């Protein structure tokens, strides 16, 4: 079913006042944002899309002097705020505008809890509405003004379907006794704060085919990525827009040839890179150095707890018939092992879990930490998968 996707651009004080008056009467709104991160080093929110009761608003914070009026609506516990991948949008809106959020729902998290085949918004729209969303503007430059009509249409469609999708998901979550778990997780997401952003962490682990390089090449690759990051930060450009990964590899392969480096990036950058290559930042990087395990700095007792907690995680996954994406990561498990939690309050202090998880996973976590049996504390847990594949 195709839903009406006309939109109202809010880019001046008068249109902002009218939109706020209308939205203040809503009992639920759908929210999305478009940011500049695909183009800039320091991402900023460029559009805020809000849909409610068939009206679709596109707020333009670049042209509006002040969007703080939205804050009262976001904090209103009587208004449900529906997102897809709420954590990203909420952190961005908190970072740029210091908003607070109360009473949210997240269709991304819900899709995982319902064990849907995919979790993207485009998949959910097609799954529930049999409509294919265009991806044409997915990598648009949202900072440019004026925006194209196709960009605005694309942005509006990100919120048009959220309310109806959430209604269907809410029904299924309730039917499968997963609703309380979902809403506890939503409350945790709403409370998340953005970490201060000082720059990207330069890392080789996810660089394509890094294991195929020699140890000397890996060191040169690391140093090239550092130079790229520094230049990206100075110019406020996304790092790959300075030099993409193919060009980075080309630089590494030709690191001894100044003429070739000059052909690739110009004389100024070539001179700087040659100096960097002649004075590498450290020794050659061996394969074993690439993937540091999260337990390397754990004591022997902490390592034992870590291993028991990993087994606990496997047990929960088996009982609930679920994948890793709904379970604590190795990094989180290592933090729990270090803390050596003795009570549910200790687990709360870590701020890793929603209250539902504290109450429903907490007792078994505490037993696992102490090396005691915990299977009897898991009998009430609801399976995620309806049946084994």
TrEMBL record:
InterPro entries: 3'-5'_exonuclease_dom (IPR002562), HRDC-like_sf (IPR010997), HRDC_dom (IPR002121), HRDC_dom_sf (IPR044876), RNaseH-like_sf (IPR012337), RNaseH_sf (IPR036397), Rrp6-like (IPR045092). GO terms for biological process: exonucleolytic trimming to generate mature 3'-end of 5.8S rRNA from tricistronic rRNA transcript (SSU-rRNA, 5.8S rRNA, LSU-rRNA); histone mRNA catabolic process; poly(A)-dependent snoRNA 3'-end processing. GO terms for molecular function: 3'-5'-RNA exonuclease activity; nucleotide binding; single-stranded RNA binding. Residues 299-379 form the HRDC domain. Pfam families: DNA_pol_A_exo1 (PF01612), HRDC (PF00570). This is Ribonuclease D. It comes from the Bacteria.
């Amino acid at each position: 079913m195709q839903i009406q996707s006309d939109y109202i651009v809010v880019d001046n004080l008068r249109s902002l006042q009218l939109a706020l008056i209308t939205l203040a009467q809503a009992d639920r709104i759908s929210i999305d944002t478009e940011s500049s991160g695909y183009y800039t080093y320091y991402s900023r929110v460029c559009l805020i899309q809000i849909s409610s009761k068939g009206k679709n608003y596109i707020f333009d914070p670049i042209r509006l002097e002040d969007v703080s009026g939205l804050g009262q609506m976001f904090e209103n516990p009587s208004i449900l705020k529906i997102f897809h991948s709420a954590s990203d949008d909420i952190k961005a809106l908190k970072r740029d505008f210091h908003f607070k959020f109360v009473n949210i729902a997240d269709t991304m998290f819900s899709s995982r809890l319902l064990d849907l085949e995919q979790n993207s918004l485009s998949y959910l729209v097609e799954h529930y509405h049999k409509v294919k969303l265009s991806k044409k503007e997915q990598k648009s430059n949202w900072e440019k003004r004026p925006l194209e009509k196709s960009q605005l249409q694309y942005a509006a469609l990100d919120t048009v379907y959220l309310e109806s999708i959430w209604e269907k998901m809410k029904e299924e979550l309730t039917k499968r006794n997963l609703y309380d778990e979902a809403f506890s997780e939503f409350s945790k997401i709403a409370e998340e704060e953005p970490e201060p952003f000082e720059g990207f962490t330069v890392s080789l682990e996810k660089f394509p085919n890094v294991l195929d390089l020699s140890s000397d090449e890996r060191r040169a690759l690391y140093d090239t990525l550092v130079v790229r990051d520094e230049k990206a930060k100075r110019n406020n450009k996304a790092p790959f827009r300075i030099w993409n990964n193919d060009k980075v590899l080309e630089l590494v392969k030709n690191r001894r040839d100044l003429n070739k480096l000059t052909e690739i990036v110009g004389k100024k950058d070539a001179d700087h890179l040659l100096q960097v290559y002649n004075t590498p930042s450290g020794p050659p990087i061996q394969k074993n150095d690439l993937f540091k395990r999260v337990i390397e700095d754990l004591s022997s007792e902490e390592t034992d707890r870590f291993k028991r907690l990993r087994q606990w995680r496997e047990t929960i996954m088996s009982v609930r018939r679920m994948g890793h994406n709904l379970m604590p990561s190795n990094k989180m498990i290592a933090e729990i092992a270090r803390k050596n939690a003795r009570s549910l309050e200790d687990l709360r202090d870590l701020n890793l879990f929603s209250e539902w998880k504290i109450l429903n996973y907490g007792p078994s976590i505490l037993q696992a930490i102490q090396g005691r049996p915990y299977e009897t504390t898991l009998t009430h847990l609801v399976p995620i998968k309806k049946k084994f594949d």
